[in-house]
């Protein structure tokens, strides 16, 4: 309880004095969701220029970006991902691939599993039924965990169906293991979350995961406030970064926004680059630098900028602390 009050008081102090709250400039938890666009490959170097507070990245693939392949794990940790089901169920190429990278000297310690398996392909999900997912997991992920790598539970969509999918998956996975004569459950080291929406929803979503998976640390591997005004998007960015940095059980987070504003599928204001490939305020803040004042614009011009609703954000923050503590 004392802990809760302290958190709330600090948060309130940060929000109340003016209409803006300064987000934390740098954080060791911060990562890059790498989403290159072939027409603007020159932008790839932006994310690895120094100074940067980005310590890790993933690219939805088992192997590093060719552009980044020479960077050591200690400089920028690459985290391989097993995105979805291979075409053959007994395929173990992900496992082999990660083992080979380790053999060749890349010190891989963390692995991400399925990307939005509860979502259809048309939304970027990997659209997997839990029995297939269990088979692929047992063939590829369990052996890596036995080698001592840390693995994340699949990252479901932010929809309420996500937790249900994970419950059914864990059940199917344990059944699949017991068929092979072993008595153990499918195990994992951290849960991974996606969220698109406001801070209230984000914090409540995290509360749901805390309740379902007690004592598991969290990685928020995709999040943003989509299609909102610039002021609201910046306020959301600041308050969520502050929140993630404050909570010990949040181990890592990665903002979905490392692309140009005119190519953004979450609205121009959520993008870390403007349409000319220059860092926006959010982009610069995320890298741990001072804001640039550069305004992101979409294909048809800028979004209207309105004042952030500070008192609403504070109420939400306070009510949410009760949920996740
Ligand atoms: C967000 O934080 C930055 C500093 O990191 C600050 O300059 C800016 O005013 C803040 N904006 C809002 C809307 O909270
Ligand atoms: C597997 O998980 C179930 C449900 O959480 C639990 O009841 C059971 O004891 C676990 N089994 C093992 C071997 O850990
Ligand atoms: C959570 O961790 C604490 C401290 O390690 C332990 O006492 C508690 O039993 C754990 N709770 C669950 C539900 O695993
Ligand atoms: C790639 O970038 C160009 C130029 O910004 C944009 O028009 C295009 O829609 C982008 N492609 C994708 C798949 O986002």
UniProtKB/TrEMBL annotation:
Name its GO BP terms in alphabetical order: fungal-type cell wall polysaccharide metabolic process
The highest taxon in the source lineage is Eukaryota
Ranges for domain Asl1-like glycosyl hydrolase catalytic come to 32-286
- Which range is the signal sequence, renumbered to this chain? 1-22
Q: Name one GO cellular component term.
A: fungal-type cell wall
Name of the protein this chain belongs to: Alkali-sensitive linkage protein 1
One short Pfam family name for this protein? Glyco_hydro_cc
Keywords attached to this Swiss-Prot or TrEMBL record, sorted alphabetically, are: Signal
């Amino acid at each position: 309880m004392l802990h809760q009050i302290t958190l709330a008081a600090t948060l309130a102090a940060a929000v109340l004095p003016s209409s803006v709250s300064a987000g934390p400039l740098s954080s060791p938890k911060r990562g890059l969701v790498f989403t290159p666009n072939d027409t603007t490959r020159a932008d790839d170097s932006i994310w690895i220029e120094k100074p940067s507070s980005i310590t890790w990245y993933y690219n939805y693939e088992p192997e590093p970006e060719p552009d980044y392949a020479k960077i050591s794990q200690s400089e920028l940790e690459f985290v391989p991902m097993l995105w979805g089901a291979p075409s053959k169920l007994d395929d173990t190429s992900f496992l082999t691939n990660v083992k080979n990278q380790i053999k060749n000297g890349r010190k891989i310690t963390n692995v991400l599993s399925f990307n939005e398996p509860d979502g259809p392909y048309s939304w970027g999900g990997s659209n997997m039924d839990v029995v297939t997912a269990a088979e692929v997991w047992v063939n590829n992920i369990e052996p890596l965990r036995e080698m001592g790598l840390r693995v994340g539970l699949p990252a479901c969509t932010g929809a309420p169906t996500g937790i249900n999918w994970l419950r059914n998956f864990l059940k199917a996975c344990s059944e699949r293991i017991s068929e092979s004569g072993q008595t153990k459950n499918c195990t994992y080291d951290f849960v991974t979350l996606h969220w698109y929406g406001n801070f209230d929803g984000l914090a409540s979503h995290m509360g749901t995961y805390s309740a379902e998976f007690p004592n598991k640390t969290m990685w928020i591997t995709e999040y943003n406030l989509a299609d909102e005004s610039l002021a609201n998007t910046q306020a959301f960015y600041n308050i969520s970064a502050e929140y993630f940095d404050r909570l010990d059980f949040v181990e890592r987070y990665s903002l979905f926004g490392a692309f140009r504003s005119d190519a953004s599928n979450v609205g121009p204001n959520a993008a870390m680059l403007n349409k000319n490939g220059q860092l926006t305020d959010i982009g610069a803040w995320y890298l741990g630098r001072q804001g640039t004042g550069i305004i992101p614009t979409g294909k048809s011009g800028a979004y209207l900028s309105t004042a952030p609703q500070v008192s609403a954000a504070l109420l939400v923050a306070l009510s949410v602390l009760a949920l996740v503590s």
